[in-house]
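User: Fold this; C-alpha cells only.

Assistant: Input:
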Amino acid sequence: MLPAPKLRHFLQSVPVLAGLEGRSLDSVIRVLKRQTFAPKAIICAEGELGRTMYIVEAGEVEVLRTNKAGHPVPIVSLGRGECFGEMALVELEARSANVEARNRCTTYSLNNFDLYQLFKQDNFAFTIVLQNVCRLLSRRLRKADSRIAEFVSDAAPKARSKKPVPKKKAQSRRA
C-alpha cells in the first residue's frame, strides 16, 4: 500500500476523485478497498450484476465486449489513475463488458454501499464523487458518439455505391 501522503496525492490525481481534499478525501479513503489481481484475472464479468467501481493504482486492465458471434472484442485498455465499473454506481444493471487484468494489477474499489455511507457521513464527498462519475460517463459517451459517427460515415459510401435494384412495374389487366 502507498504511504499516506503518496496515496492522498495519487487519489487527488484521479479524475473521478478530483476536487476532494482534507476531511472529504479522508472520508473516501476510509471506504476504499485495495485489491490485487493476477494477470488474466477477470475483475468484472459481462452480464453479472455490478455494484463496484475500480480505480487502477498499478498495472493495466483491458475492457472486452462480447460480439454477436460470442467472441470478445477489445474496447479499451486502462492504466494508472483510470477507473472502470463506474456505471454500477448509478444504475443497477448487468455489467456491459468483461474487464481483465493484462498484468499484475492493483486497484481501489468503491461500491454502492460505500457511496451510500458517503451520502450519510460526508455529503460533499458524495456529491463530488457522483458529479465526477457523471462527467466521466459524459466524456465516454461523447467519445463513443464520435466512434459511431466515424464508423457510420465509413460505411455510408459503400452503401451509396450499391446501385438500387429497379422495381418492376405492375402490369395492369384490362378486362
